[in-house]
Protein 1
Amino acid sequence: MTKKRLILAPVVALAVTAAIALSGCAANTATTPAADAKPLDGGTIVYGHQQEPACVFGGWIEQAYLSYNVLDSLVSLDEDHQVVPWLAEKWAVSDDGLQWTFDLKPDVKFTDGSDLTAEVVAYNFDYWVNGGGNSTALAWLGGYYQGAEAVDDLTVQVDLAKPYPRLADNLTQGYFGIQSQKALTERTQEENCAAPIGTGAFIVDHWDRGQEIVLKRNDGYTSWPANAEHTGPALVDEVEWKFIADATTRVAALKSGELDAVYDVPAVQWKPTGDAGFTLEKYVTPGRPQVLTFNTAQGPFTDESVRQAFAYAVDRKEIVESIGRGVIPYEGNGGVSQTTPGYSQKAADWYTQDLDKAADLLDAAGWTETDSDGYRTKDGETLEVTLPYFTGSIITADGVSILQGVQEQAKKSGFKVDLIPVPQAEAFSGAYSKPDERDIYPGYWTAVTSGILQINWGAGSDGNPNNWNASFTDYPELQALILQANSEPDVDKQNALYEQAQEYIAEHALAIGVYDRLSTLAVSPKLKGVWQEHAQGGPTFYDAYFVQ
């Protein structure tokens, strides 16, 4: 059965694959509780997730998923994409847009016993932008944030260099969880990495690296967000957040009854899992979808005609619909996903497969000859491009199949695409990050606004390049549109500017969309109240409970 409400929770998995294999004879159909089944007090949720991060708090979405359950933020995002109170009861913006004031809830304590104060919040802002283990927070605040100070015990003032009307929206992301100043200043970096101290519904009890993180209930919790479904402490005693990379193993463990929820259900297993009685949820994350960004600094894609030819050569929609089986949405927009405010459908529809156009564009670009393998050549050089992709949760198994489909179709127009799988450890160490190492970059970046365009396409600063710009090239006209949009207070005008920016990306074929990034979840019918936070689709277990 599939519910319309968007809900997410990371997948629970068994540590020992053999144990799951032995349970294969168990019933694969969920036992559904009676409609009037009563809620149970307490209990332990066993949840399996595909990806283990290095720290609980940080700048990666896998960290945001975890920290959202441990660290409260100033504000939350509801189902209607409206910013609602969390640690901040209310907030205001000055007429010139350069000063934000947040009024905090009284009598909130961190789990180390220290008080939530305006001074602590101001410290967190400075911590984020000064190397506090969170490059994503810096990416969102950089160029805007000037400083923060306590006006009184419960009022914090944030000063900006230029207007940033979507600041509160961006603060709903899990990268902006508030930590105890006492913990940040008195504990070691390793301690704060493994078990950050927040005011949240759960506390990190322990972390068995490579196996699981156990979260226990914060019995003194008083600071739930306005969009929560109950008040008071969490309803369950603890969450065993297990890590297992293989999606098939996770789903098998759910069906055997050893897990209560699993994350990232493969498209091929989606319908059978729902038919077996498990609740299915999927969340299309806003921000940059899974796109192919072309290296326009060097190589064949410096020629706009070649980029456009590639866009016309591949029927991305057909590939995604075939492999995605109606679960993974096709996304033609190379800038932002369809759930992002300010989305341009015009940009999404810019290119559909047209092999004749692709051929004409390659001819015009001088790639007129064909070798014995069918690849285009020019002056004896093969039209060969490198496409490295990062494995694991960045490009999942379904994503790899989609990239293989792109490779196959591009070959028909004469492109030789070299797909190179890159382990995450190598990716995070900088592999294939330089202009001479790749021609196409596949990747996503979750966000709540089209302001993600500034991170992905903004110019460098202080003589340094923007390392998040996968094209390796500055486009002043595009960057001016994005900056203007970021500071525009009128929502309709802002969205129109963001749409123009996306259409610039499409017109010049700087990047093309392929599919929207999903967070999917399958949940036992015995577990209720698991929901996705609406900024990034992360799982929240605060409202979760078991029924008989």
Protein 2
Amino acid sequence: MRYSQCPKKSITTQGFTLIELLVAISILAIVAVLGWRGLDSIVRSREVLTAELEQTRGLQLTFAQLQSDCTNNVNPANYPNLPEGLSSWIEPQRFILIRNVFPDAQAPAMQVVTYRLNDGNLTRFESISTRDLSMLKQLLQQARTPPDQQVEVIMQKNVQNIEFVAWPIGSGNANAVAATSNNVVAPSASSSLGASATSSNAATSGNQAVNNGIQNGVPTNTTTGLQVSLQLEKHDKNMRKIFILGGA
């Protein structure tokens, strides 16, 4: 008995054409590029946000330290033998003050603190503590002419400009005086905190500021307000904060 064989069906293999493969690859490439750009945007935004947070945190620490230093500013009325009879000086992009320090288990002492703008960085330097007025005078002189090897703490980086403005008590904003790069204030008995002005009536405002702080060469027991205006790089607006000197 013979069996007839059924004819075999031809099996044809179907697949993607070259054009379809090219289209699929192009779509995948576009999706990959879009995903990469989105990820890059997220990373860049994160970097910018991190930098802004670091600047904000640095400003908070800087202003907190300034607050502590200004609050403990020495009152010249309590120390008539202070160098030049003063306890704070404003210069272009620099602020110097004498502050009280209270070491543990030791008698109160004084130290010289300097804030200045140095190569785009706001730095702070504090001298050793002393109760000797002659030593304090030497420390003050060193603060005015700091050596190159002086170790300073960087309080804030990327600072474009800083300005210190002072209001003698009872003078109001109209008599606010400042030190800028165009108006150098040499620390002396006639240049107490805010001893010069930047407006056209600089002489009048400056003299009034000095008279409010010194009467016949004798320091008076007055409290002075200090405004710090700080501008960071890539920022159009200044950040300002006001402190009371000797508020403790």
Protein 3
Amino acid sequence: MLFNSFEFIFIYLPLTIFIFYFCINKKLRLPAILSLVLMSLVFYSYWNYRYAILIVISIALNYLTGRLLHGTGRKEIFIAGVSFNLLLLAYYKYCNFFIDNINKIFQTNISSLNIVLPLAISFFTFTQIAYIVDVYKNRNIKYDLASYSLFVLFFPHLIAGPIVYHKEIIPQFKDEKTFKVNYLNISAGILLFFIGLFKKVIIADYFSPHAALVFDLAEHPTFIEAWAGALSYTMQIYFDFSGYTDMALGLAYMFNIKMPRNFNSPYKSNNIIDFWRTWHMTLSRFLKDYLYIPLGGNRSGKLRKYINLMMTMLLGGLWHGAGWTFVIWGGLHGIYLCVNHAFRAAKIEINWFIARTITFIAVVAAWIFFRAKDLKTAFNILKGCVGFNGIDFHPEYATKAEVFFIILALIAVNTLPNSIQLANNIRPNIKWLAFTLLIALVSLTMINNPSEFLYFQF
């Protein structure tokens, strides 16, 4: 079930809201929480009910691990708990990638396993690893099963983030304010949801086929075609992920739950460090807290700092997908970060416009690997971007309208306020009601065959 589908907007969401607020009205807090647990399971089961069993088992074993750590603090239990999560992720996400590479290296013919990647496995695995690590460090952490289950399953963040921490979500399930009707939260939530829907169905879905033409069909894209394809995907993933994030935060607001920001105008960044502070912010936070700092962070000298940055970003790339294109994407961002930190250490300053342009081009170059189906395609598009495939002013795989909308999108992402800024200024009055109704009507009329959000595949 997709956020941008009629069955979600007109059936699932109203029913879930009704049950939750009915329980609140009757002062039934535990049933209110359990209703969200149940409806979140229904939401997840919509794709494949078999994997609902998997996520229930995962929650049960991780919760049990947390309780055992709370009672004993034994290192063996901690290692077993983290290993379970990593092995689960490795089996479902990386097993065939490993087999394919073994076959290529050793010229073997091992058959790939018939494995379907469970939806959101990367997200709910990281969420629960963080919980186990925190309980191991602080044995005072203890939650009831209902709250823990909702923390993992809460449908707004379950499929594609944000990657939430238990300490910022579960306490809200005990907060008096969560179980009161808050019209400002509901208003902000509805506005954010429809802003996100607008970004997805009007903007991201427009750029999607244009990007696909170049990445999937053009064998040797010319200069204009390569840049049109690369920039179309750059805008597609921006508005797709930004749209999903807005919808997720908006949905949480409707239930008086505040989730961490995950997206804050990353294409306005003047350097790669700032880009990673504003793009997929909760993934950056997780990688920093549970990988970069445990590796030593910047505490062991510059060389070690750069090695830690590279390792963190390479694993961050691999987290996104089991493929060398994702590894190279992560590696490129690792190199970018190392160069950025070196420039800062040397106190080299660059004009903000030049810095933003360089940063943006670097991000676009990395997105080419992220989107490409294989390395050959990625390098062909890069060759096109530097003119090695020729320049054709009447390109087959790019249109004047596409170029116009790319320019329009570039202006928008660099000048307009982001969704969070809009939501923070919302007031329940006629002006905001009219604005919300307008973008809702425009978005709903454009829903035809709802497409998945890009981050659903991770």
